Amino acid sequence: MDNEHLKELFRKINVWKRGDQRAPHKPLLTLYALSRLSTGQKNSRIPYQEVDEALRPLLAQFGPTRKSYHPEQPFWWLQTDGIWELDIDPATLPRRKSGNNPTKSQLLRHNVHGGFPQNILQTLQGNRSLISEIAYEILEKHFPESMHDEILSIIGLDLSKTIVNRTVRDPAFRETVLRAYEYRCAVCGLDIRIGNQTLGLEAAHVKWHQAGGPSTVDNGIALCILHHKIFDYGAFTISQNDRQLIVSEKAHGTNGFNETLMQHHGKPVRTPVNPAYSIKDSYIRWHEREVFKKPARYFPDGDCQ
Length: 305
Ligand SMILES: [Zn+2]
Known about the structure:
The chain has 305 residues and is mostly helical. It contains 12 helices and 9 strands. It has a 3-stranded antiparallel beta sheet. Strands 4-5 form a two-stranded antiparallel ribbon. A two-stranded antiparallel sheet has the order 6-7. Strand 8 and strand 9 form a beta hairpin. Helix 1 (3-11) packs parallel to helix 7 (128-142) and helix 2 runs antiparallel to helix 7. It binds zinc ion. Zinc ion binds at residues 185, 187-188, 190, 223-224, 226-227. Zinc ion is lined by residues 185, 187-188, 190, 223-224, 226-227.
């Protein structure tokens, strides 16, 4: 199989869709399997137990908050994308309905292994730059840049030697958003400059562009690098009604936690210079639903949310 054909197959991975809900399952499993391959592991078939243990924390950290996490879903459904196969005849796995995947305990009981089919393996094995290019495309398509390094370091994939054509984002978006917030972080007010150059300040998408969020001022907010990152990770969100910063109950820390986050809990974030530039409600709702690590922290005054 030639490289372009292979890259096209990975581009076509069909991610489960319901509206604009995030589904990072297949991308994370694919990245995990690519990483395993890049380290030259001879055993290319991965036991379900290993996938379950590796994917569960990744889904919790990089996916939306859910009551439970289901690594068995991508392990099963990635087969339909033509880049994954299991070492068991599907008919031997009992399922409630043909539209269902087997349960975790069934996959464990049958000791099912999964992995890339032979023709894909042959093309990928020993071709680190191809593995890296595919991995980078998957990252770009499904996760904001602020998460890339952590995902790569947790799954153990090193892209540092890879020359990739980084997607150039719309520079007008950055400029419009920073101007709307007077070149200051909307949370902490940071506005460090050298001469006329703003440092450490970024235009964040409230609804990620990976989820179809547009690069328009009503989907943007100016945040310093730190607040941008922890906003993308869902350590805080912004309330829809009164634009207050809401800290996640799952976020904690000692040094700097109060200064960076807790002191802003329940306080309004900076508003743009013109109400017309305000973040649209639907984008805030998406962030609260798909990114914020629920539940919200307790409010001593009980006066918000
Ligand atoms: Zn800040």
